[in-house]
Specification:
The complex is a heterodimer of chains A (476) and B (238). Chain A is an alpha/beta fold and 476 residues long. Chain A folds into two domains: 10-301, 3-Layer(aba) Sandwich (Rossmann fold); 414-470, no CATH class. Chain A has 23 helices and 13 strands. Chain A has helices at 10-19, 21-44, 48-64, 66-79, 90-103, 115-119, 122-128, 138-145, 163-174, 182-199, 225-231, 249-264, 299-302, 318-322, 324-329, 340-351, 353-356, 368-372, 379-394, 399-413, 415-429, 445-449, 462-470; strands spanning 83-87, 108-111, 132-135, 202-205, 209-211, 216-221, 235-241, 245-246, 271-275, 289-295, 433-434, 437-438, 454-455. The longest helix of chain A is centred in the first third of the chain and has 24 residues, at 21-44. The radius of gyration of chain A is 26 Å and the shape is elongated. The N and C termini of chain A lie far apart (62 Å). Chain B folds into two domains: 2-116, 3-Layer(aba) Sandwich (Rossmann fold); 122-235, 3-Layer(aba) Sandwich (Rossmann fold). The radius of gyration of chain B is 17 Å and the shape is globular. Chain B starts with a strand and ends with a helix. The model of chain B has no long low-confidence stretch (mean pLDDT 96). The chains are: A alpha/beta (476), B alpha/beta (238). Chains A and B meet through helix 1, helix 15, helix 18, helix 19 and helix 20 of A and helix 1, helix 2, helix 3, helix 4 and helix 8 of B.
Chain lengths: 476, 238
């Protein structure tokens, strides 16, 4: 439940998104440019489909042997002197981390970008405990100083803001006086953040991939902030979703190649940071103390179900970047820190249908998400599975829809009823028909005809024409 | 060659001209057309809304209706794709899975059938005008038919063709999505119409009745001077 953002209803959120022209301009522009870059990065690799299959195989293998690899990872972290904590829930994860913070009497925490810590709302938990928490990924930093605006994209969290809006946030909150040039804005953030890196007591990161064989953790960034977060503070805490691991560095290489290409169309990001346990005797930097927090928070319940493949996700956001629905409504409309197609599949699983029952329907099932997923998650099929669950098991579908579908079941399944129904349709629709179209339809047609014309049923159905013709009637 | 026509409910009830054009086109190419009378809807509207149980009844009727067909051809990529989904939907069913597989194996979308089975790339059509083409999502991504319509259109004499910007983007139809998520659907179809306008085409051609009904309905409401045509109507023009 923790990943929920805002309290508004789905329709209100969508309405807000649609009317936010700044956000829509930013999202459409980003989708177009990232989409082009992703395509060329994938093509450049040559055999992209083979890479996807390989990626899928690796992720499937890990999920099928998750207990084995989690144990191996934990053992290897412990061997190197790290502490491992397995958190069943968001609360357990937060309590443990708060405990570490308290034991170090820490006043300042610097963080590298992490979706799982957004999911468990770690920041607010630590802030309540009196600790200053500073996001050091530029996008997250912008959102944090803008009164904790939630992320709208899993890779580019501040995607919904353009550079002028970012300048305004900097001016309001930081007294910034320069222009909206990205270099100047980034320069200002860098200057401010440098002091924070140097004075932080604890560094907290997420984890792109944990390597079970060595007990290492990789972080993929373009800003290098993860390097500083993991090397300057004395205590380091890595928080990972329990499925985010690979057997060895060999598999990590495959997945990182898929990730950077799919996420931002880069062959490689500027930094791939790998951290293995606390500082050793001859190391010149690195934390003195290392903690690993493995977060379940609903994931193990997905294992073994028809939704298991969603855990293959490597959080690249390629599905978000091609989604035509996301394009028009933006990330906040999803009401979850996980937005777009992956969010529409994952949020109801982790957060429940009560809060997220609309999300599986916020898709035309166009399949663009499934087509780009680098680890072949059948996203549109999983959205469909959710709909089936909602209708059949949860009973959460509206009554009018249930009745209509029941009628469909009867009508469409009976050739006789279907024939009579289609024959009577022109007469039934006659009061609403104007020439060859219906502009003001009844019932479910109302929403359609509010913005479009609906064709009036043909007086002579195709089948009548065909049959007449067979009998030697009209020959057109 | 004997072809059983899977007309689709939209064509049967609302777009009979598309059905007529399909029949005439296939006959000209030497096919003998049969229209199994007991065909109903393929079940997709209910299935995609999550009503799997209800939709299966319609699917069984369709499997029976086309049981003796040699080839099943449909002027709709999305509906033809639905037949290809049947084996997956009936997976594990001792009776219906095999039957569903048999149906899927002999089902083709119209342009796919002309190019892949009849091995015809030029149907001898003539159509004067500037046109663009909407590639429907289910037909391209799920059924995997990309080239056939382009191949056939490129051989239509008199046709001036312009590529549609953002052609891979969904038009916002999505069956019940168009009414369930009406406000989002409106944004999507508006962007599609805007792209069609950018091409300055007089005609928008497509191979899927659902998408065409959506885009065409919006174009009509906005009073834009663009005509929407099914690819069968263009290929049947002389």
């Amino acid at each position: 439940m923790a990943m929920k953002i805002g309290v508004e209803e789905f329709k209100e959120r969508v309405g807000k998104g649609i009317n936010d022209s700044f956000m829509r301009g930013a999202v459409a522009g980003a989708q177009d440019s990232m989409g082009t870059r992703r395509l060329s990065a994938a093509e450049e690799l040559g055999n992209w489909e083979d890479w996807r299959s390989h990626g899928e195989e690796i992720r499937k293998h890990v999920l099928e042997n998750l207990d084995y690899y989690l144990e191996q990872l934990s053992d290897n972290v412990a061997k190197r002197g790290g502490h491992v904590f397995f958190a069943s829930t968001a609360e357990e994860a937060n309590d443990y981390i708060r405990g570490v913070v308290a034991s170090k009497n820490a006043k300042k925490v610097v963080k590298a970008k992490s979706m799982v810590t957004e999911e468990i709302h770690l920041n607010s938990c630590l802030e309540l405990a009196g600790c200053e928490v500073i996001e050091t990924d530029l996008g997250e930093y912008i959102l944090q100083i803008d009164d904790h605006d939630p992320p709208s994209h899993i890779v580019v969290p501040a995607l919904h803001k353009n550079k002028e809006q970012i300048r305004d946030v900097f001016t309001d909150k930081l007294g910034y006086q320069k222009t909206s040039k990205p270099e100047e804005l980034a320069g200002h953030a860098r200057e401010t953040l440098r002091q924070d890196f140097l004075t932080a007591d604890i560094g907290i990161t997420g984890c792109n991939f944990a390597v079970a064989e060595t007990g290492s953790f990789s972080l993929v960034t373009n800003e290098g902030n993860a390097d500083l977060v993991t090397s300057l503070p004395k205590t380091q805490i890595t928080v990972m979703g329990m499925e985010r691991l690979v057997p060895t560095f060999e598999e990590m290489e495959v997945l990182v190649s898929l990730l950077t290409r799919s996420a931002v169309g880069q062959k490689l990001t500027s930094y791939i940071t790998v951290l293995t346990g606390p500082r050793e005797e001859l190391d010149v930097d690195g934390p003195e103390e290392f903690h690993l927090v493995i977060v379940d928070n609903g994931r193990s319940k997905i294992l073994g179900t028809e939704f298991q493949s969603v855990l293959q996700c490597i959080r690249c956001a390629a599905c978000i970047n091609v989604c035509p629905v996301y394009r028009h409504v933006g990330g906040h409309s999803y009401g979850s820190i996980y937005s777009g197609p992956i969010g529409a599949v994952l949020s109801p699983l982790l957060g429940g249908y009560e809060d997220y029952k609309e999300l599986p329907y916020a898709s035309t099932l166009c399949g663009a998400c499934t087509e780009v997923c680098p680890v072949k998650i059948p996203l549109h099929e999983l959205l469909h599975k959710h709909r089936q669950e909602i209708v059949e098991k949860e009973g959460k579908a509206p009554i009018s829809e249930k009745l209509a579908m029941k009628a469909f079941g009867l009508g469409a399944a009976s050739p006789a009823l279907y024939k009579i129904g289609s024959k009577l349709a022109p007469a039934a629709m006659n009061p609403f028909t104007n020439g060859d179209k219906i502009s003001n339809g009844p019932g479910p047609l109302k929403a359609w005809t509010e913005i479009r014309e609906f064709p009036a049923p043909n007086k002579e159905r195709f089948r009548d024409w065909f049959n007449n013709r067979e009998k030697g009637g009209n020959q057109s | 060659m004997k072809v059983s026509l899977f007309a689709t409910c939209l064509v049967d009830m609302f777009q009979s001209d598309v059905g007529k054009a399909t029949v005439e086109l296939l006959e000209r190419l030497g096919c003998e057309i049969d229209f199994p009378e007991s065909q109903v809807c393929c079940g997709q509207p209910a299935y995609n809304s999550g009503y799997v149980k209800e939709s299966k009844e319609a699917m069984k009727k369709m499997i029976d209706a086309f049981a003796s067909a040699e080839y099943v051809v449909s002027p709709s990529g999305s509906c033809a794709y639905m037949f290809h989904e049947y084996p997956h939907i009936f997976k594990g069913d001792p009776v219906w899975e095999t039957k569903a597989k048999r149906l899927a194996e002999k089902t083709y979308e119209l342009t796919q059938f002309i190019v892949e089975v009849l091995k015809v790339e030029d149907v001898g059509a003539r159509f004067e005008g500037r046109a663009t083409y909407h590639t429907s999502c289910h037909m391209t991504r799920l059924l995997g038919v990309n080239k056939a319509p382009m191949t056939l259109l490129s051989n239509v004499k008199g046709l001036e063709f312009t590529q549609l910007p953002g052609k891979e983007q969904c038009c916002g139809f999505g069956g019940t999505f168009s009414v369930k998520m009406a406000q989002i659907s409106e944004q999507m179809v508006d962007e599609k119409v805007q792209h069609v306008e950018e091409t300055q085409a007089d005609y928008l051609i497509g191979a899927d009745a659902g998408c065409l009904m959506n885009i065409g309905g919006r174009i009509d409401r906005k009073g834009k001077p663009i005509r929407v045509l099914h690819i069968a109507e263009v290929l049947n023009s002389r």
